[in-house]
Design a protein that fits this description.
By secondary structure, the chain is α+β, with helices and mostly antiparallel strands. Helix content is about 25%, strand content about 35%. It is built from three helices and eight strands. The chain has a three-stranded antiparallel β-sheet with strand order 1-5-3, covered by helices on one side. A three-stranded antiparallel β-sheet has the order 4-2-6, with no helix packed on it. β7 and β8 form a beta hairpin.
């Protein structure tokens, strides 16, 4: 049984939760989340093309597959720890105004830190 994962929030991935519970599912043979690394941008699932990954459940006993499927669906709402605290920053360079979106990564940022983060993003060409 192929199960498509759903993420209900936009933002930045903090971490993947419930790994120990996933490892205990007897029928789980492959777990392939689209979002794996801290800081990775996460998109809310709106259709098949934006699903958050797949889980493959295979077992000789259909009851085991069904039980693991239900467990996976119960874990799904909290599977992706997403930080959606984003700030919009406007930077003026001459007559050009750029709009920057900075994620706080779960911590409080001062205005000075936001400006520095925005300048670093501009230097890297992220904007």
């Amino acid at each position: 049984r192929i199960t498509h994962l759903v993420c209900s929030k936009d933002g930045t991935l903090r971490r993947l939760r419930h790994r120990w519970r996933l490892n205990r599912l007897r029928s789980l043979v492959q777990f392939a989340p689209r979002y794996r690394w801290r800081g990775q941008p996460v998109k809310r699932t709106t259709c098949f093309n934006t699903c958050a990954g797949e889980a493959h459940l295979i077992h000789a006993d259909a009851r085991v597959v069904e039980r693991d499927y239900r467990t996976l669906r119960k874990l799904q709402p909290t599977l992706f720890a997403v930080d959606n605290q984003r700030r919009t920053l406007y930077v003026r360079r001459g007559s050009v105004v750029r709009r920057l979106v900075a994620s706080s990564g779960g911590r409080q940022l001062t205005a000075a830190q936001l400006v520095v983060d925005g300048m670093e993003m501009t230097r890297r060409g992220s904007v």
